[in-house]
Specification:
single chain, about 150 residues, mainly beta, eight-stranded antiparallel beta barrel, 1 helix, 8 strands, about 15% helix
């Protein structure tokens, strides 16, 4: 009984950890070459996968029950979705593209999305924040005659 209980705790603990933490495809992806990576979920913007949630244009899906596909950097998910006034479920395959983006396949459709460049904080991108001046401490001068 203890072995069964430990096994169930391990399975449910792993499922919960996946749902609450970062997933293998987390990132922001362009819907087109001209997409605005800051406009997530908007027409002409980007889509996001974060902590088991896919956010597209006017919809979002919980990515549940991930199953690895043998010998591929890919998983198949049960997608529990809502948007545009309705709820639906579907299965989708997400795989890492060779260029670092993703390929997403739904029943009868496949989409390739390029990864958006990582966001750079304003102070690192030459924004308003100025760097702190360095504090230089020089050693005391020694007495030459001493």
């Amino acid at each position: 009984m203890t072995t069964l209980k430990s096994g169930l705790i391990a399975v449910f603990g792993t499922t919960f950890a996946y749902a609450a933490g970062a997933g293998p495809f987390d990132g922001v992806y362009k819907q087109s070459a001209e997409a605005d990576c800051a406009a997530i979920g908007e027409d002409g913007g980007a889509l996001r996968i974060e902590s088991g949630v896919f956010t597209g244009v006017d919809n979002s899906c919980r990515m549940e029950r991930p199953v690895s596909i043998v010998d591929m950097d890919a998983k198949i998910y049960d997608m529990i979705c809502t948007g545009e006034g309705s709820d639906w479920q579907a299965r989708a395959i997400v795989m890492r593209a060779v260029d670092g983006g993703i390929i997403m396949m739904w029943d009868g459709y496949a989409f390739k999305y390029e990864a958006c460049p990582a966001a750079v904080p304003p102070d690192e991108a030459g924004g308003d924040a100025a760097p702190e001046p360095a504090l230089v401490i020089e050693p005391p001068e020694e007495d030459a005659g001493g």
